[in-house]
Amino acid sequence: MSDVSLEKVKQELLERKRELEEKLNKISTEKVSDDQTGDPGDQALSSSMESLRSSFQNTETEEYKRIVKALEKIADGTYGICTDCDQPISPKRLEMYPNAERCLTCQEAYEEQQQLS
Ligand SMILES: [Zn+2]
Questions:
Q1: Using only C-alpha atoms, what is the Rg of the chain?
Q2: Which end of the chain, C or N, has fewer beta carbons within 10 A?
Q3: What b/e string do you get for 89-100 counting C-beta neighbours within 10 Å, with b at 16 or more?
Q4: For residue range 26-64, what is the model confidence (pLDDT) as tens digits?
Q5: Lowest mean pLDDT segment, chosen from 21-30, 49-58, 75-84
Q6: How remote is the CA of residue 107 from the centroid of ligand 1, in Å?
Q7: pTM for the full predicted model
Q8: Distance from the alpha carbon of residue 89 to the mean position of ligand 1, in angstroms
Q9: CB contact at 8 A, 50 and 71
Q10: By CB neighbour count within 10 A (0-12 exposed, 13-18 middle, 19+ buried), where does 22 fall?
């Protein structure tokens, strides 16, 4: 991967990182205001909203972590290398998933393993 496109990826990741930071901050602020309403009629709704939000927050947090990792890899020059087989990840895949840690083959194997456990 050339330096130019790597720089572009880095900018995109930094931008996405900022977006996620804002979202995650907002989520934690909203949580506090929810606790203060205290209307019993809203509790069922509020608790399902809560679980929805926490699963959303998990997804966002996971993405945030992957972006931080990808930025670290850019910094130490290992970006675009599969963490499992040390082979370069295809540029097409990186274009779609700039924070991909594995090549397609290893990712599929990894996901299969996750489902089994
Ligand atoms: Zn691999």
A1: 18
A2: C
A3: beeebbeeebbb
A4: 877 876 555 555 566 667 777 887 888 888 788 999 999
A5: 49-58
A6: 7
A7: 0.71
A8: 7
A9: no
A10: exposed
Contact 62, 99 (CB under 8 A): no
Q: Which residues are near ligand 1, the ion (C-beta closer than 5 Å)?
A: 82, 84-85, 103, 106
Amino acid at 16: R
Per-residue exposure over 37-64, b if at least 16 CB sit within 10 Å of its own CB, e if not: eeeeeeeeebeeeeeeeeeeeeebeebb
Secondary structure of the chain in HEC code, one letter for each residue = CCHHHHHHHHHHHHHHHHHHHHHHHHHHHHHHHHHCCCCHHHHHHHHHHHHHHHHHHHHHHHHHHHHHHHHHHHHHCCCCECCCCCCECCHHHHHHCCCCCCCHHHHHHHHHHHHHC
Using the structure block, give the residue that is written with the tokens 């996620």: 20
Any idea what DSSP says for residue 40? Answer: G
